[in-house]
Amino acid sequence: MLVMLQSPVPGGAPDRLTVGVAARLSRYLQVLTQSKKMGKERISSQEIADYTNINATQIRRDLSNFGKFGKRGVGYSIDSLLAEIRKILRTQGQHNIALVGAGRLGQAIASSQIFAEHGINIAAVFDSDESKIGHDIGGAAIEDERRLKDVVRDKNIVVGVLAVPAGAAQKVADDLVDAGVRIIFNYSEALLDVPSDVTVHTSNPAVELLHALYFHLT
Amino acid sequence: MLVMLQSPVPGGAPDRLTVGVAARLSRYLQVLTQSKKMGKERISSQEIADYTNINATQIRRDLSNFGKFGKRGVGYSIDSLLAEIRKILRTQGQHNIALVGAGRLGQAIASSQIFAEHGINIAAVFDSDESKIGHDIGGAAIEDERRLKDVVRDKNIVVGVLAVPAGAAQKVADDLVDAGVRIIFNYSEALLDVPSDVTVHTSNPAVELLHALYFHLT
DNA sequence: TAGATTGTTAATCGATTAACAATC
DNA sequence: TAGATTGTTAATCGATTAACAATC
Predict the structure, then answer these.
(1) CA-based radius of gyration for chain B
(2) Which of A73, A95, B16, B123 has the fewest CB atoms found within 10 Å of its own CB?
(3) One domain, residues B130 and B82
(4) Contact A120 B209 (CB under 8 A)
(5) Which one of A45, A71, A89 terminates a domain?
């Protein structure tokens, strides 16, 4: 049923979201989660548009691909839309990730609620600094980076978050990949070389800033 | 001349990049900056493609809109391509930004080289915690958050980076906007309400992770 | 020369938008 | 009923890709 709705052309096409749709749905999820926290119960496509800078028609269209989730004249119920999107993105369960680097950035990430809110659990934290090992960070004990491969493999972790200095990033990435990680979030400045079946997401505030500035300057 | 090259259709179109092109050019800039640091002098469109997950043809096409920067059979000179893209994005000068929040995330941002590398200067840092005021962070003295409006206005700052707890984010955003800021990078979980002429970029690792996970799960 | 890589064309596909009837 | 907002159509625009001649 879901597959049929996702491919409106009979006999056609993939039962997989396009990259664009999946990215947008994730952003709706974030807006809904925060709106719910603020006590809201309903939201309109226009309100989601204001927070995401995604066109309201696009939002309604994205959602209507999967069913009629809204009420005309009223909007969408936040709770039920949350459940629907989670179903579509298959993010209902718990996901375990590994964090490497317990410096300032690593600590900021570990103590943030942002992952927990979306069912993402930081299952292991590593650092190479012996003085940090054993200390608690966001509810987990910091482990020796030399144990990374074993722990990641044992816990079947497929996502790694890199919050280490640029100089150490490639070595850590290699270890993560060896241990079975297939998605790396790179918060270092370094460019990472990985096998083609591994996805690297490099997060770079400066890049986004340059791009935003361009539109301010022109 | 530049205008003409940017609008190949005679008599046509904007002298402004589309959002997509500007975003991609910024990412090329990051790859070039890092490659240069690693001592490379030339790079091919395929290498840039490997690091950015942007199609190599797309990259060549983006660049050839502005001139013939490459050498067939050889690739692009990193130095000259850096200069060309900076010219196109008008990011050759120095840009002053304000950072609000000197907690772990704020400290991580302030001490990173990532902004400085791209000519972005953190001209002021604020925090509401009196015990932090006056302390040095990434070369700047932390100032009292109550001075935010005056300082931002005096220094003509148009970009603000929010690294404060979610509960404080809206108030800080209001103050930044009052003081003239037009671009806000929001690293809190909060949704921000701002006037329509202000751009908010919300950076949310969890959102990117959910979206990346979807493709791993399917 | 032989190999590599750019610049460019042409074709396709998905994103974006305005507009509006349906309906809460 | 009157007002609001969804779901959907239709039209346009930009992104994406393969392919390949040009040329270093």
Answers:
(1) 20
(2) A73
(3) no
(4) yes
(5) A89
